[in-house]
Amino acid sequence: MSRDHLQSAGRSEASAEAPFLELLARGASADAYEQPVLLARADGLAPGRIAALEHAKLLALRVRSEMEGRRRREAELSALFETAHDLAGLRDLDAVLRAIVQRARSLLSTDIAYLSLNDPAKGDTYMRVTEGSVAARFQQLRLGMGEGLGGLVAQTARPYVTDDYFRDDRFQHTLTIDAGVRDEGLVAILGVPLTLGPQVIGVLFAADRRARVFEREEIALLGSFAALAAAAIDAANLLTETREALADLERANEIIRDRSGVIERASDVHDRLAELVLRGGGVHDVSAAVSQVLDGTVRFADAGAAPGDALEVSRAEGHAVRHGDDWVAAVAAGGELLGALVLRGHPGLDPVDQRTLERAAMVTSLLLLARRSAAEAEQRVRGELLDDLLDARDRDPRLLRERAARLDADLDALHVVLAARLDIVAADADQEAAARRRLWSAASHLAATRHGLAAARDGGTVLLLPLGPGDTATDLARRAARDLGTAVHEAVTVGASAPVRDLAVHPERAAEAYAEVQRCLDALRLLGRTGDGAAAEDFGFLGLLLAGSRDISGFVERTIGQVVAYDAKRGTDLLHTLEAYFACGSSPARTKDELHVHVNTVAQRLERVGRLLGPEWQSPARVLEIQLALRLHRLSSTASSGRH
Prior knowledge:
Blueprint: H1 3-25, H2 35-42, H3 47-88, H4 93-108, E1 112-119, E2 124-131, H5 136-139, E3 142-144, H6 148-156, E4 160-162, H7 175-184, E5 188-196, E6 199-208, H8 216-258, H9 260-278, H10 283-294, E7 297-301, H11 308-317, E8 321-323, E9 326-333, E10 336-344, H12 351-391, H13 397-406, E11 415-422, H14 429-449, E12 453-457, E13 460-466, H15 473-488, E14 492-496, H16 508-526, E15 533-535, H17 542-546, H18 552-570, H19 574-583, H20 588-595, H21 599-613, H22 620-643
Helix pairs in contact: 1-3, 2-3, 3-4, 3-8, 4-8, 9-10, 9-12, 10-12, 14-15, 18-22, 19-20, 20-21
């Protein structure tokens, strides 16, 4: 090609670029760049000219794209810089978050932008900031975790974008979310996670009300804003925590200033408690000392007498707990509950005074353990004496009385033999052995306080306790089951014998009573009454089968004794009337024929029986016992008359 031709081509190319340079200079739209080519074709210019214009157009559009990209990046960087500046001077978290959402919407040119945060307390997520929203229901959305496009973002901690929300099945649609999105008219949605470390705390969204494809640069930009939003939230949280910490420090300083007198009291009680331990003081000495320091009334209570719920909480937490207007501090050693210190009528207890009460409970447990160590030898002696009684090894009444007297027990008094059994399924042999030791320890303590004896026997514990005035064997068994169960924190079943006396003279009675108790325990287990206490007499005529002595006269006396006594005193014939009544199928009309009396006479006699035996005397269970007692009474009366 000649030099003239090349120069001509260069001039042609330069002239082809001129209109596009002008378009670039005035920032024309992309559509305007087609105009020079269209005009050249309309004027019929040479193909070479048109090709040069096409080439210049492509170059110009590329330059325009680069310029727009630079301007966009400058705007993005400027917005990010302004947001970071807002964050650095954070005063109002809501204002910073609103600015982030506004700038994100502006730079991405979307119809709406919004930010949601997770609410760990309620287990859902809620709208925190919206920009461009017009639907009230959308602005007030609270969503379950894992629901909607935001749930997918939170679950994966990655950005997600949908071109058409309602046709996208990658995430879980719900009626609530879909209704809100439909109210707002949204179609295309982009969501990016707000993360603090590995934790997603919310989602930043940009959305349009028409179909749209979000470019990679737009996704990255929204992610940058999300990072700033997360940083703003983190900074606000740190600022709040700092302010709270400062407030706590101020309150602590006030407490320290106001509690100097309380600390002095705590030091005083520490000295007093140390002195008590050194001179061998008792539990009540500790209660008295703490009462003076706390200016209240402190009493030691056994585990069964202390408020149950408060006692268990105190034992589990290791702190004194409030119970109404009182405070309860558990006295425990290892896994065993020994009792409690109870501060009465002092609801506004100071924290330092609360610690004083807790320290006193600890000292009390140490004193009790020391006393227990001294008493273990005595407990062993008590156990040996009871073992000798049960095995009838020592038959010298004088020696038995002397041994019992040294233990503050009286074998000539009326006693009841009780057997206590743990009803637990232990995980291993060690746990079962530990539970049995706790039961024996609690039973020994009970025996010592009740002037009785206790020994470990046959995998459980056997006790010999005196029967107090007004008490029955059943009362004693039930109290023992309750007290022992409370002490060892397990269900304890207790069986009791009929009362026995003169054990020094008749030690064999202890073995007979123990055999009766074992049968009573077996009956309780078979009846499903584990954790309860009962005596043979509680089983009615079944007690005859359980009782080793077969106390027939006692059963008859308990069942129909009042009727027998009434007949003997007044010369009536109520017993005969009862027998005839039952023999006639409980029919008064047939009974009057059997007795040859008027039916009113039968009714009057039965009414008298009812007053003597109680209103339930015709219940099926009572009828069975009454009939058996009548039969046994007649048999025993016949045998007596035969002997005479």
